């Protein structure tokens, strides 16, 4: 089978950092699938435009493009049904939609102001300039440094926002139950993104979410832990 | 089959209002099961103590007690597997744990300060006194009226906290997918609780969450809509 994955990187092509690409990386590993990685940078829009996307991840399966991490997870589930299930049935597939929204809003959205000014350090000049300009516009013209200025208090609110997850992990080892599934990878993608680009400490060591993240760093022979990042 | 359900009521025994009991009511209806209702009030601890609980819902199945709405949903799924599924498979059962935490924290916890001082209006004097004393202690001695004083601004934050759900409902009709399942009932229970005890308007009419709530009010021949409550 031929699988290729466009993944967001910066100056180091072996250091993928997008939270959405990490969702896909973990999903591929869960299915026991390997994909050739195609390193992609923010300003390389022309490389993925022919595949109908402006963003990554983009998966190519026998040259057919599948765009967006959620669509890719569903594609993998439907095209490789005999391999370990990502959703654990149709109920899980539906509910994972809400966990996907939690991952986008509470996790990626919550972490963003805590690490945003660290991200350009990982990027070549042209990509750093693009990132700064596009993201500062989203924050109404604030500099990335201004957005991040209060992260020591912001992280307290972020940790509080994880209570829903914390209560879940007090009852069962993973969001997906006894073993991790795509629900876990959705959320983990955000934490791994932070780990790759920033030394900032998001979680306290005695947090059940910390213990959960440790287990996912170790999953698939330590795939996420051995990928370049900060020890957090 | 013999099913009986202890349900929280106030002065009107035909007006059940607990968010957790409503989760169970909807779950029973989903399974096509009917249970004899056993109206129960806050101060009637002795009625359920023999069944090993201090709180409702308590389900009796051939006299065997099942305590706690989550445990009851799982019990129904396991004991009535040939009836419509509440979780849609093991993945859904696991992920519903996190939606249950969302229901407890964001929905019940979020609605509580918006309606709390309206609740005693529904209770007999002895229950109202118990409710006031126990809940005011939880809020560090604030009166229920003080807790609710800022609800006009509090409801704005509450609506914002529903964004995770709103994003989900823009993609699919129900949290459970094309049709509602227990994930929906978890969240709906909180809205129905508010509707029964308080005239306060929680949702704006153009909110996708409002449209979703309308559909659940209509479910099972309008079971929740025809149960006594306020038009909200």
If you had to describe this structure to a student in words, what would you say it looks like?
The structure is a homodimer of 232-residue chains. The first copy, chain A, has ten helices and four strands, in the order βαβαββαααααααα. In chain A, helix 4 (90-115) runs antiparallel to helix 7 and helix 4 (90-115) runs parallel beside helix 9 (182-197). The first copy, chain A, is α+β, with helices and mostly antiparallel strands. Chain A has two domains: 3-79, Glutaredoxin (3-Layer(aba) Sandwich); 90-226, Glutathione S-transferase Yfyf (Class Pi), Chain A, domain 2. In chain A, 54% of the residues lie in helices and 8% in strands. The first copy, chain A, has helices at residues 19-30, 45-48, 69-79, 90-115, 125-138, 144-148, 151-161, 163-169, 182-197, 208-226, and strands spanning 3-8, 36-40, 58-61, 64-67. In chain A, a hairpin with a 2-residue loop joins strand 3 (58-61) and strand 4. The interface between A and B is medium-sized, with 34 and 34 residues. Chains A, B: GO terms for molecular function: glutathione dehydrogenase (ascorbate) activity; glutathione transferase activity. Chains A, B: This is Glutathione S-transferase. Chains A, B: InterPro entries: Glutathione-S-Trfase_C_sf, Glutathione_S-Trfase_N, GST_Omega/HSP26, GST_UstS-like_C, Thioredoxin-like_sf. Chains A, B: Residues 8-84 form the GST N-terminal domain.
